[in-house]
Amino acid sequence: MVLSENARSEIRRLMAQFPQRQSALLGALFVAQDEVGYLSPDALADVAAVMDLPVSEITSVASFYHLYRFSPEGRHVIQVCTNISCQLRGCGRILDHLRRRLQVDVGETTADGAFTLKTAECLAACESAPVMMVDTDRLGPMSERDVDSLLDQYAHASTPSASRPRLAPPPVAPQTSMILKYIHEPDQGELEAYRRRGGYEGLRRALGMSPDGVTDEVEKSGLRGRGGAGFPTGRKWKFIPKDPAIPRYVVINADEGEPGTFKDRTLLEGDPHRLLEGIAIASYAVGAKQAFVYVRREFHHARTGLERALAQASGAGLLGHNILGSGYDLDVVVATGAGAYIAGEETSLLESLEGRRAMPRLKPPYYPAVKGLYSRPTVLNNVETLCHVAWILTEGVERYRQLGPPILISVSGHIARPGVYEVPLGTTIRQVIERAGGMLDGRPCKACFPGGSSSAILPAAYLDTQMDYDALAKLDVYGSMLGSGALIVMDDTTNMVEVVARTVEFYRDESCGKCTPCREGTMWLGQVLRRMLAGQGRSEDLALLDSIARGMTGTCFCPLGESVPPAIYSSLRFFRSEFEQYAKGAGGVPQAVHA
Amino acid sequence: MNQVPPMVTMTIDGTKVAVPKGTTVYQAAKGAHIEIPIFCYHDRMPPLGACRMCLVKVEKMAKLQTSCTLEAADGMVVSTIAPEVKAGQEAILEFLLINHPLDCPICDKGGECPLQDQTYAFGPGRSRFIEPKRDFAKPVSLGRVLVLDRERCILCWRCVRFGEIIAGDDALKGFERGFHSEINTPFTLPVESKFIGNTIAICPVGALTAKPYRFAARPWDNQAVSSVCTLCGVGCAVDFDVRGGAITRTRARESPAVNDIWLCDLGFFGHGYVHHSERLRRPLVRQDGNLVETTWDNALDLVAHRLRAAPPSRVAMLGGARLTNEDAYVAGRFFRGVLGTNHLDHRIDTRPQSASQSVPWGMAVSIAEIDQADVILLVGCDVTEEYPVLWLRMKRAIAHGAKVIAVTPKALEIHRFVDHHLVHRYGEGAAVVRALTGSHVEDSRAGGLGGVDSAAITAAAARLGGATRALVMIGRAALEAPDGVEAAAAVRDLAARLSVPVNVMRGKGNAFGAALGGLLPDAGPGGRPLADIAGDLQQIWNRAVAPQSGMTAPEIVETGAQGGLDVLYVVAADPATDVLDHTQWKAARARLPFLVVQDAFLTQTAQVADVVLPALVAPEKDGTVSSIEGRIQRLHAAVLGPGEARQDWTIFAALAERCGAEMAYSGWEEIFDEMQALIPGLALDARMNPMGGAIGRPARTPPPPVRAEAPSADFPFVLIPGEALFARGAMSARSAAIADLAGEPWAMMHPDDAARLPVAEGDAIVLQSPHGAAAVRVKVSTAVLAGQVFLPRGYDGAAANALADAAEALTRVRAIALTPTSAGAGSGEVGRRTP
Questions:
Q1: Which of A219, B25, B488, B620 could form a cystine bridge with B641, CB 3.0-4.6 A?
Q2: Same domain, B660 and B802
Q3: What is the pLDDT of residue B2?
């Protein structure tokens, strides 16, 4: 027995929050890890005993997620994001500097046990790129000098890291907006302030309507899901069976992880009550008595704020029993992720929320609206989507359509003012870049990902395309899409082979491994690209890259694997000469283009 | 009532195919003899869709579809041969092969490998992969029988899903993710499973192979002999693969009504004893205190002489559960018809007057019917230890919504699937069962009835009350308990209220066949009472058979100990380790003028015999055996026996001749024919009703009141004798894999008791009773209640019967720690009064 009675009772408390105890597993493993320092075999055995689950099962689950560790680590864990937006902003320099300062390589711990150095995938904070985390603190944008001063503070800290000074992220660009209107107000996360600004009036109005009436209004608004797939929200709610005897759930996907996307985190941190209001409205509309918010583990600050807001709202009768005297009850539970991009895929999220490895489910039969969480009908909505819902019910569907409909775009990369921008649907890429202050240092735009790294790479010739579901999807470029609205812009210094390699490696490392083409194809593509970058390219490699991508196209189990070919096809098409250079072997490798 | 599912008609490769709605495209194609390659799909599990090998093109669908997951629909037009399909399949195979080591020449799967076959049939001609392959340490040992090669693994998840869906043991799991994914156990520890051999069988590559079969043979070297496993009572169909006169491996043979396509690991790896070097090859006789080899003629003459010289009433026979039906029948005919004694009993492991003697052993419902149960009640039946493959049936019922209630003195290994687990103090289970019927039972002691929470009993009773297709099983731990007679009666009443029969889960090997053959003191072949069958026997055997019942096994031992026997003939049994009271057995042996043992090994009993006759074992025999459900199944001799060992019935025939009787048969078929004349309904593959000397009747004499031993400070623990699938008995100890799986003898105690001793998991202790001692390793578990110690039978090295006293219903013991832990510096002993 290595777990204290406190830890055990915390695990039992988590178990009691869920209809099935295994749902508490991810949280329980963090309880054990926090207490023991890592998931030792004894710690795992204790968790298994408390939860009455097989040790093999919980060990298998734990090993799936990046944020669990199976050996001791340093007192402080530094995670440097190395995904595209941070790569474009020089995370390589930060990482090199840390390596030199700490005298360790990635994955190692300093001799004095103070620091463990790690890399991380997109931390959904691209406005602060290059960004890193020390323990639970997010820090950025980082310079070498920032690193030096931080290391000194942490190395000599005897106080908990939470009290360490935090580097302020750059502010979101000011604007007159609908969804983001109060995002900059420092007190917006407080119930009193939120209500003063009209908060929870949408919920009050919804509770005065019939559930079907609420759904109709959302459908009329034309709101489409903002998680990436863009499915009409009202129609999604209508899939839920009417029979009230069948328990149903609402699940909120707050696992934002698509590289270049950080609008959900921004909303969670800045306006948590708006999300809660949206959750309550959605749950009322579909008749759910329980809602689960699956929050990405890296969002420590957001989770704390959300839990605080939840407590405030419950205390004020806005959630919980008999909401606003309507007779409607709703229990909202905050659940945790543990480091897995695939958990953003809806059926994988449900697996993860049930305490299992986040591997996608077979559809059919596991359509969430039919057999979702615990095989019950389930509505899955994205954070931004529900914030829109709160606005729509507050201000009315006409105003929503008239003023918008708005859309949040996360702008990052070689951009002057990276941040989340609210624009009307249909704004062109070029206009969005202008809103964000234009290209960094005024250099020319070479290319962009219009919808996160899962979308195709568009060259500058396409900058006048509207950021709209249909306009992007209708382009003659395979895999062009609006996705989650993550615009990553790249200037003329960008090495496209490097960008594609990094993109492929992201999917390789985040692949769940369930299906063959995704598991093996991403690995093979990564090997070929890295070999080319290392000066070992061959003339047949371009055809090979294309062929591997073709083998993955339309054959993967879920969208993750299908997200890889667009970058391959589009880069081979638009930036072929760069690949051809590398295909010449050592002679073709260009000099480093980045400072 | 039978609802015929609506049919859908589709076209596959131009062929019209009609299938019931719900059929997958893969299954529809298979039915039309159109082959689609698969890896992850396995027809005993729901489709997964992971490997993507079974791609097909469907008209009006944009992407290729996985045929294993796609439901056939009316008008669907499918191509399995379109160029895109071919390209897709080639791509998937190429992906699968880039990290596969292609070490087929040194792979045990070579020659029966789906990956090899599919590559040949569907794969690209050459590889374009020039990068370094994924590198794993290999091979990795995962315990005594399983070898893992992660480089060969194609991550089809079959083995993982077997553990989750079929066996429920979660033995193998997926770890890490993406291209780092690997199948393993947590921390590469030895795999914990009773069914792991099945994962080797369904592995579509050589990632999981069997250590005992490693490099033993190529598939084409093996000749498969279909037979039946006789190592427990389930009667699973097997194929013995034979090469060069020796069994190289055991495989499951599909038998929908019994084991489907599965086996347990005792079945897979328990054949080692057959070729063990200690097999008896020649008869032995005792000379000058030692057993020395002799000729069959000498040995048979000597045995026949002693048998003829003894009055029939002073001749007794014990054993038979390891015989074939025909062996048992001929044995019965020899002792009854030739020698004239009714002192025959195969039930040597019963307590005097125990409930086991008053109930017919065997299942009243068929094994296949287990699937349909909605509530399963297990009373004193440790199903995974005693009848492991039946658990796989129960797991299927559970998947269909069945609920499980267990009333046992030790929590079952399958506890996660038991909805109402009523773990009680040993000897108090009957009261718990009574309470389940709703009868008011006085709480005799504190802590609830038998130590069980009363709310749990109430909930279980409610569950039982709602059952429409209950399955009721009572097992050894209930029948042999001090309150076994009461437990049996309570279970009988409960079952009657539920309008279902009681399944008596009792008897190992061919115990059912021993009863069928007539090795019972009060019944002849077919379990027919002696008075009823005497006339028929007279006609066929041409001998009069005395109608009076003979002695039961415990009575035979007791009588022997009192000097009441001249000859004891032990057949295919080891009473020295199996009778309840070893002390009494030793006394019997000491007073016995002549002990004959007919067996395959020099068992503990054989070591003290006067004559030992070497016999064949089941895989060497032709004939039939009967399973716990009474199914008559055919054994085919897979290999020849060692030396001069003989099949049992031929030994009795030879003895009969020397006793002046004609009892000659040309082979097992002739014996079987003769049995059919006496046993109505006997036929190959027929199911016989359970039979016993006193079917449905109470014990002939009421059991003596249980001597209520007060808990004593000297012997504070109640001993729970129980079962373990992997043990070290006469045969299992000589099947190396099984002996290793069993490990050292062990006993289980509650953490509170362990802390008080103090001992920790794995420490050595000695269990002592007033009668004897046994040295064991401790397992610490809350599966037993405090104050109780569970000791598995079946370990010859720590025989539970050394501790017991036939005159006492309960055995009380104390535990002495041999290696006190640092946890305490005390005497390491609980139960000794300290001054």
A1: B620
A2: no
A3: 57
